[in-house]
Queue: 2 jobs
Job 1
Amino acid sequence: MKPATDLPDRRTLLNDLWAIQLEKRHISDQDIKALAEQYQLSEVEIEGVVSFYHFFHRQPAGQYTIYINNSVTAMHSGMGAIIAAFEEATGARIGQTDPTGVFGLYETSCIGLSDLEPAALINFQPFINLTPQKVKALVWQLRRGVPVEQLADPIPQHLQHPLPPDRAVLLRPFLPGQTLKPLLQLDPEEALSTLEASGLRGMGGAFFPAGKKWRMCREQPGGEKYILCNADEGEPGTFKDRMLLQYLPGLVIDGMIHAAYATGAAEGWIYLRGEYRWLLPVLEAAIKAYYDEGWLGAQIPAKTPFRFDLHIQLGAGAYVCGEETAMMNSLEGLRGEPRVRTYFPVERGYRQKPTVVNNVETFAAAARVIELGAGYFAALGTPQMKGTRLLSIAGDCERPGIYEIEWGTRLAEVLDWAGATSTLAVQISGPSGQCIDPNYGDRRFDWDDLRCGGAVTVFNTQRDLLQILRNFSKFFAEESCGVCTPCRAGNFIFTRKLDKLAKGLGRADDYLEIQNWSNIMRQTSRCGLGRAATNALLTAIENFPGYFTRYFNPKSAAGAQPFDLEAAVSDYRQAVNKTLGTIKTD
Amino acid sequence: MAKAVSIQIDGIEVQAEEGQNLVDAIRGAGVFIPSLCYYEHIQPPLGTCRVCTVLVNGKPTASCTATVKPGMKVVTQTKELEDVRKGMVEMLFAEGNHFCPACEKSGDCDLQGLGYRLGVTATRFPHLFVNRLIDYRPERMVIDHNRCIRCRRCVEEVRTEAGKAVFSFVNRGKNTVVAIDYGAESELSEAEALQAMHLCPVGAILVRGKSLARPVGERKYDQPEQGWRKEEEAVDVPQPKPGAPKKVIATTSLAGCFGCHMSLLDIDEELLDAVELVAFSKSPLTDIKAFDRRCDVGIIEGGCCNSENVEVLRAFREHCDILIGVGECAIWGGLPAMRNFIPIEECLLEAYGRTTELEDSKVVIPKHEDLPELLDRVYGCQEIVRMDYFIPGCPPDARHIWKVIKHALFGQPYALTHEEFKYD
């Protein structure tokens, strides 16, 4: 048993797998064998990578591979009817291809189009506002050979309720390279100080001060450093990064260039989630234009000119890759499993080198800080949360879309703008966030109140909270990387627990168990996914005590547990009736 | 050389090497901390099982993923932490299919050892009963996925001469498993294969023909030096007040093998004392078929596999003040639960179709209103009624059963001791 030594660089593995998947519609045993040889890995290791990402298939996934979003918002917008329509039109059952292998039909976790549901990806092109009629027409045209790209829906910017020009940060006029001009007057230290003075925090959800992160990276010894843009916007209900990447890619690239200037990194990556593959041409064109202008490359104009090269890595369908260390593993051609937190990425990140990882919105905001000045930014928001935040609002409201709000804005106001009426609950920050009752208390988007990661999903009084929570629970059980016990087994156990509640077999002490089990997961999980997985459940029960009493049957505490004997023997009855008198064949 | 620094473990200043793995430092200080995935030769540490969670400077941390830093404050023993760590072990039992009495590694298994050590009687989580593969394809090994705890030791450590991995995680989420590379496995030498088996903390990696090399009684957790607190002071068994009426016991065997009842009788001459103390109501021991009075204690062997079991168990709950589940089957289904992975139709065909030879070659599955109907799976007793105590084991030791019963009848619940509880 020997340690792995000098194995070839496997960073290109994901791209190789993508190429095979797109060309042959699956990754065959032969492909795995060939890749294993090429990378001098054992086949099972390639298999490990392939099976981690759900856009890689081991069985042919159809000439047209259709992915239907199964998020809560999709479910509420009629996903069931859309799946049925696709099944009928294509002849494929969900999870399979049709017998001729032309269409493959699959469910997938949120594809970042919650404002335009029901939505689907066909060969990674977006299709929105689907209706059964539209599906039927679409499939008919695909059968006639109309190219998917030609049929794909344009995705609108979907901006709602813009801030006045003297308060907007992100959503204001922009020309590529616009925010780079101040660099001619600033040396890296000054650029960094500007960012620090602005008070900008990371927008990915942890809200770590961006300037501090960049400084930590800057102060690391050694020349090899990296800038990573986390464009793996996987939290169901979030889509504001999609809009930034599509409509303001230059602003995001600007922010990465600033980060490179401030930290001394010479290379950067945008890790784009596979669900946004349709944005690849947009980003590639933007990057090319920057190279053409000399804003990327060997000699970027600034007070002290510098080098920065920028690449894109496409993910392949894994929510957990939004965790920064998982993303770095994925970039290195590994399974996207979060690392053991021995070091911060700014100490040892991508390729074990100091790395700044920031979210798309953070880079965009950082670029604006350099452009508009720290003072402009810091004057907005609240003492603890400066500036603005993009919200992705979706669900039961009249005006879903992107909202730029100042930190400190009241939730009630936002819901009013969005046209949310008869609201039962609002899910803040997606399934890993909190489920709150907007009719109770005066909640604000702020550090010590709603520290929102971007998603605001609205549920009206017609919705079934338990069904929503079951959807979340299933999502986490599927999307856990599977490495640590509490997240892998705990989320699975929770799906069973919620199934039981839904069947009306809850007991009074189930609530105590849910609290105890959640606490175990929170204390032991290796990364934020497992720690946050039961947030929605706990906050929902806490905020809607009346709603949940019906599920926690108080009568059952004493003696008999709720147990459905009829249901438990139904398999037997069916089998006996079917098998009685069957002719023995062997 | 590493510098000795001062850290605090549970409020006590101890010396440890700077940069040393925290698990080792805690153990070096003589404090027990459980672990499963931790293997000191693997760097960076795996941090997969999370069984060694402690508080480091107030923050919950898997101690194997932390290194000693000067002034570090570590808390290992709080009621909550102990419960959390025990919960982790229970979760692994609930997730996998751990039929210890049928496992080659029983007695050599770290998971089982920790179960004893932490006093896991029943898991708080429902068993998931997911059908998992037993992979017989490798040349030299058998991989039993029912038992794998995905600790990752083999993934990191077992490599061929050429440096290729033999094992890898595949899939994701709840479907994550450790798969073996058949080609790479065939390149391992016998010694390397054996090393892989020993590296596995449970019984998931077995080498054909070598898996039972060490006899029961000489296995890892049969040895007192494994850190079991040897039988402490003799426990006082509470006695009834003189002249008090005899306590009444009822017993039943549901989906069990009657082994626990056999064990119950195995107390030899103490049976005479027992007869002085208790009287039996409904029980196979007395052949009394129905409850003739209220009972103090009901003893349940076996889980519930059919409708009659459910009815009997409910009747016991109704007629008994205290219900004690005896043996693994009562706790979570035990060996009969091996059928939980097989569709009921398959079970019936196997039992009545393929194995009986009838002339007219018809499959006859008995069906009559008097026959109990099979449940979709075997259930542990606490899934049907509230249970008060469990006595683990397969079967539990006779003396131990009686001690627990006497404590339940006349005193307080009785904490298990490892010696009594172990069953391999």
Job 2
Amino acid sequence: MSSQMLTISSSPHVNGEQTTQNIMFGVIIALLPALMVAVIFFGIGAIKVTVAAVATCVLFEYLIQKYMMKSTVAITDGSAALSGLLLAFNLPSNFPIWMVVAGSLVTIGIAKMSFGGLGKNPFNPALVGRVFLLVSFPVHMTNWPVPKWLDFSFADSATGATALSVLKEGLANGQSVGEMQKLMELPSHISLFLGQVGGSLGEVSAVALLLGGIYLLYKEIITWHIPVSFLASVVVISGAFWLFDSQQYADPIFHIVSGGIMLGAIFMATDMVTSPMTPKGQIIFGIGCGLLTVIIRMYGGYPEGVSFAILIMNACVPLIDKMVPAKRFGVK
Amino acid sequence: MNDLFIYSVLTLSGIGAVAASILFVASKKFKVFEDPKIDEVEEELPSANCGACGFPGCRGFAEAIVNNPDDFDSFNCPVGGNDVMKKVAAIMGKEATEKEPTIAVLKCNGSRQNAPQKIIYSGEQNCALSHSMFSGESGCPSGCLGLGDCVDVCNFGALYIDEETWLPVVDEEKCTSCGACVNVCPRGLFEIMPRGKDNKRIYVACMNTQKGAAAKKNCKVACIGCMKCTKVYETDSVKVTNFCSYISPDVDVENYGSAIIASCPTKAILGVNVEEQKV
Amino acid sequence: MKTKTFTMGGIHPADNKLSADKPIEELEIPIEVQIPIAQHIGAPAKPVVKKGDKVKVGTLIAEAGGFISANIHSSVSGTVGIAKEIVGTSGYLEKVISIKVEGDEWEESIIKSDELKKEITLSPDEIQAKVKEAGIVGLGGATFPSHVKFAIPEGCKAEMVLINGVECEPYLTADHRLMLEKGEEILVGTSIAMKALGVDKGVIGIEENKPDAIKHLTKLAENYSGILIQPLKVQYPQGGEKQLIKSITGKEVTAGALPIHYGLAVFNVGTIFAVYEAVQKNKPLIDRIVTVTGKNVSKPSNYKVRIGTPLKELIEKAGGVPENTAKIVSGGPMMGKALTSTEIPATKGTSGVLLFSEKDTKRADETACIRCGKCSTVCCLGLQPFLFAALVRKRNWEKLEEAHVMDCLECGSCSYTCPANLPLVDLIKLGKIEIKKLREARKK
């Protein structure tokens, strides 16, 4: 007989590999390609903003857990680091550091911890941080550096507008989509796809984000339901408008490779805490996000609507979960 | 501009008037008569909503009292005690019978020291669950599991788990003998018993029904059913059934308490404010 | 043949079938056996022997205590000892009949030879009586008295017999070995069940991780009319009755309904082998195959064990309890029961004995639920374990009951999957206990 005392516990007696920690770090790994693209195009600024956001998010989480909530400190689970990274991805690379810190405080302090911490926040923390910064510092938030190739100088780089704001302004000034494309005011689909465009540092490269998305699917961290329904609804709705009038409305491909849709659909909307539980609910959620995004882009005051769309749908999650219960076995 | 002003005032007043009339009609139509005494009685109750009286919450208790005035004696709020019942009686125009103050006692002394741990339980820290899986970390099938279901359900903060003994401790000041712990304990180890004259009482702190040797194997202070206590106090108040002694509260603690405690070879009988004494 | 599987939920835990290539060995008869009188679901059996009685192998020592109950036979020959209680699988003292072994004398009516007997001479009613008499219970682990399944309730008609050769629990290999070594007997047993239920179709479902068994039985089945071998994709908990039915027939048995309402009867391969022995050899259920395994066990093996043998005998034979053993489990790792000692006797329901080190079985500390919904995704019944957990922690039993927690079969997929390490099965079991209490109270 062994010297150890035997343990009694309920079944199951073996456990799976997946933990909260490796889900969070899995998402962080999936974000790395996009981060690399950001560093390549935006240089040192991208690194500064990212490091500042991640470090301050983790720090605020630590301080709040330790001194305000007086609970166990769980910064090693990676959720704060992930929120910080996602926040950074939603900021321009020339964003002032003190504003990044303010954004982190809102992200962690208000959007996450005030609801009770991980798992209890109704809204995606990084998006709340971004929207807070957008409404507080609209100038800084819409002043995008022009991407350069591997420029690590500390000098302020030239700034410009995103494809979506060019589109919005152009349309408002009576230009048609075709004219803008001809004048090369709008970036080509290819550069949008690769990411050599102005924009938040993490959202520019559709291809890098897609790569991350494939990794998440492979690791079974996310399911296809939200990203696919989100992107598909954007394509269908914007496609309908485009078919109706291709001079007033941009084509669907332009819509899905520009702005924050890829980042939003793959990384923000799929946040487990703030999305519905059931596959059916997730599809409804994704379609809602897509619909709202297109509506805001076409009729809203802001050129980009992904963050607002996701936040609005976040608010609907409890409702969706209640209305769309999982199908039970043997029940028609 | 003036038009706008008038329109808004008119619209708002109109909405107000419509809503008010709806409310008026509804309050007339759906009015339910309620004896005002119910509110009065409820006012006096402790608002703990613990259910100790056998009714769902204090309101339910108040309704029951007011609706059945003839059975007033059968109602008791153990939490409020005699003081509250006196006040309730005054409202109802009745006489409250004085009830003896009671307290919850834990009928197990299987501390970590008396009943050493043999097996580790891991998983959700809950007695009912642990009870469904095995006889307990000490091996005693009737002993306290020490996981604190009683602490969880106590509305009055009168219970806590002692870190050294792993047994729940009843706080004499706070216990209202509401009986929540009695109902929740999967092994029925709590008993509501009278606090006794001068707060002196004795009880058998064991409910193990195994034969002596088997009981003793797991716990030093188990009742082994040796009958010695029954020899000291030869009435039905002290009796052994299923190898386990039970001392009923009507035993004469004043004169025999110490002797009964002393008679137990395993120290399974505990006394509160009663000294052990050799006779 | 095209493989099938069930569609809702399911997980893929690591197989760890360490003893899959170890032939079944017959374990020596111990000096004394302790045979519990409650080894099955339902009423405990009533002892019919007393101290000092001489019994032979196969002598009835306790008779069924009701319709849902089962006979118990002596697994050895010798003298009955005094009535006593020892700690059993339940973790509590259980009444046992202990028998001191003297020789190995069998009841004359039992045919001891291993020779295959294909011809089924008994009538359906006689078969059912035989199964009842032999005390056969479901040997997959549920230990439901088998004769009940042969008694078709009024208004139902059997159409097909399903044989469960899935063995979806990791580590266990008892059924796998039995299919390889007693294939013909299993097929005859299946034919017996088909005859008893008056059906002409039998399907044996086997998961693809046992290709040798699938191949072996498929070849043998050519000589048996109406029996089909159905390969199944590996997925836990396919061995669950409802999941197996869904996998093979596509039918979903509603909560509260029985397979027979859908014209089906499901038996484990071990059970069907016992049926063969009872009907063709007149041998009651006195032994079973037990897998003794674990990553640190020196000789993971499959043993044929007499019921009532203390588990320590099996463990000794397999190389003893490894030094770092922290948990001993009876049954599979997903649904088995942790044991308090090695003195516990093997019963009809002991499909395996698993010896785990702390590392194999450690549960990480619980963290906050991140609403990932994986518990719900893997639930084979489409339930919502995260909701159960929240309701149990709030002690909201009424809501919990409305959320269909009682349907849960405790397969453990949710706990296994949960990234926050919530003890979901613990909480569900607790919820069920409290709801049962509530229902009792309501009856009064």
